[in-house]
Amino acid sequence: MSRVEATTRQATAGVGAATGALDRLGQNLQRLPLHLVIIIFCAIWIVPTIGMIINSFRAVSDMGSAGWWTTLFPPHGFTFASYQQVFNQEGVPSSIVTSILITIPATVIQLAIATMGAYAFAWMTFPGKNIFFIVIVGLMVVPIQMTLIPLLQLFKSVHLNGTIVSVWLAHSGFGLPFEVFLLRNYLGGLPREIFESAEVDGAGHAVRFLRIAVPMTIPAIASLTIFVFLGVWNDLLVALTFLGTSANRPFTVVITQLVTSLGGGWQFLTAAAVLQMSLPLAVFIFLQRYFVRGITSGSVKG
Amino acid sequence: MVINVDQIITAVVAIVAVPLVLLGYIYLGESVIERLGERIQLWIRPYFWALPAIGFATVFMVYPLLRTVVISFRNNADDTWVGLNNYVYFFTFPDTLTSLRNSLFWLVFYTFFAVSLGLIISILLDRVRYEQAAKIAIFLPVPISAVAASIIWKFMFDYQPPGTTQTGTLNALLGVASQQPVAWLVNSTTNNAALIFVGIWSITGFCLVIISASLKAISAEVLEAARMDGANEFRIIQLIVTPLLWPTITVVGTTMIINALKTFDIVYVLTAGAYDTDVIATQMFSQLEHNHNSRAAAVGVVLFVAIVPLLIVNIRRFQQQEEQR
Fold this sequence. Notes:
Chain A is mainly alpha-helical. Chain A has helices at about 1-15, 15-30, 30-55, 60-65, 80-90, 90-125, 130-140, 145-155, 165-190, 190-200, 205-235, 235-245, 250-260, 270-285, 290-300.
């Protein structure tokens, strides 16, 4: 590529710098439709979000009388009124706390159990292992809707209905198959010699798992953690099913119920949406590498 | 602000105790197993290690799955068998049939556009220097929850009666082109398309990132050779790039089909299934809300049956991969 460019440059240098610039301009003009299409795509994918973020800093009355783009020119009239209104809304501040209290334990529980199970599937042989694993691969695509009703009944019978514990368990059961699958593939790809030499040195499975397997799997566990964490943070269906009518409603449920219950005047919820999505966006921006790796490894193999 | 202290304690205990309990399980169990005979050790150890995961998946996944199938053939009080009654209801009641139709729309259009936009954009971006920045822009909606995305699009689709100022971005644009505003989410010719578009908008970045990763894996030499032979870019994409990407496209496609069938959040937040926008998952939820458990179970089973072919495809693909390991 660079050699081609170099020869072109040499050839054009003889004719003169002016024609060279013209050539390049011509080439760029030819590529103009390409750039235009890309810019239009980017605009469609980014403008709606920006528009809403801008709206969240406007007065509700302004939002109803003029579009968000009018504030790009003075007078801007930015205000934090919507944010104040959101925080004064009953149940909102505690729902943010609830969301955190749901998300972190749910993530820890499923990843701890999945890592241990994945180790067994990667480095041990036992009768029925293949069948168990095929069931796990099958469970990966089963919609969570198939588990909701019996779990509701189950939680009711052990008096866990309406508690955040029920949501941890529902999320964990649903997430396990995918995590075991992914971690088993990763663990299985580690060099066999390391485990064999540890065994020769007299290290039992507990030591091999905790001192070798887990530390070497940290990159995969990190990607999965981000993935699971955001999945639970963003979840609506599970939370709505198990906590929708309880006092322990997480943020997504409270926002949704406000959107559907407020006929007009819902516009201040832009502030709630910005707050809700600021955590995922921060994770994406600061941990982009793990984020994208988690997505590509998960679905290309799955 | 009411802070539930009990809840915080429960959460902290769970975060600390679950890993500790597992550690205790491992150390105690191993110390017992190591004292057993070698034969028994070999036999019992794998089950000991796999037990927490298998047990958890059985209680919270396999058992509910089978139970849902059973419930779908029972009456609502769960005391007699009613045969196919709940299914007959699903396939004859107009509201549920609408949800079936809409899910079919989602399945076809959401899958087709998400995958093909992912493919087209990845090919376009491969040809420019600002690829990385553009990728971030397209990917941005992926981490955003469906709840927040719905509020974002509520503003895009906002509708005011003709003659008043349009504050919704789309209707303002229509105004610029001197067209009448459209009530996107109410009008039954546009609302399903509008909802599906929000879904596509949220997921295209996901398809793009995966397809783009395997596009980068195509060797530059193959493409260079084709160019030397005088093939134009369209022929190259048609005859070389697309076939080489096909395995990735099918994987992404299956994921999208499953997503499409499971769609719930966007529809629930934006229209709550009103104006004929119900899909299978929202239909199931409203049955559940009205305490029609067995009907809801039947709807769930229909959803599951629709996914079974993909489940089989997934298992086949897994078995092929295992043979190559």
